[in-house]
């Protein structure tokens, strides 16, 4: 029995694979390219499925490697990227496990670098917490990771930012102080930490 297949172009990025007019696979060109199968008939459905799986795995690996060449990613981000390109669940899990085993994806390293990068640029623990939550990390994992960013380093970042913003301003001016507090809170610092830092800076 010969299985006839048809590949339809949905738009400039998306293809659809049909068997006997039934949709069996959505394929993104970033993963499958133009999906040239070499022929349009197969002796069995298993033969076709195996070919599609291999093409998907190879395409997913190549695309994720290119993404990691541009920026570091958490495995949750990599999962979302591949899912958005119609990559199957089983393929995503296999590719992510392979990349973790090879050290291309390292979630612990990613979180540590993320916290260090943003805290050194004047972001507070609340801001960092929210960003890690948006990535998809669990609450307990975020709290454990932020434990590395102790109160001392958080206060140092806060004090450095206050010094920078108030260099040419009168920090005792009520209007400026209100604007400064609002700015610092938007940066993710708590009101309690800001009040403490401002008191220290006023004394020093």
UniProtKB/TrEMBL annotation:
Keyword Transferase: no
Origin superkingdom: Bacteria
Location within or outside the cell: Cytoplasm
A cellular-component GO term for this protein: cytoplasm
Domain RecX third three-helical: residue ranges: 155-198
GO biological process: regulation of DNA repair
Keywords: Cytoplasm
Pfam families assigned: RecX_HTH2, RecX_HTH3
Predominant subcellular localization, coarse grouping: cytoplasm
Residue span, RecX second three-helical domain: 106-143
Homology family: Belongs to the RecX family.
HAMAP family hit by this protein: RecX (MF_01114)
Function as written in the Swiss-Prot or TrEMBL entry: Modulates RecA activity.
Protein name: Regulatory protein RecX
UniProt organism field: Candidatus Criblamydia sequanensis CRIB-18
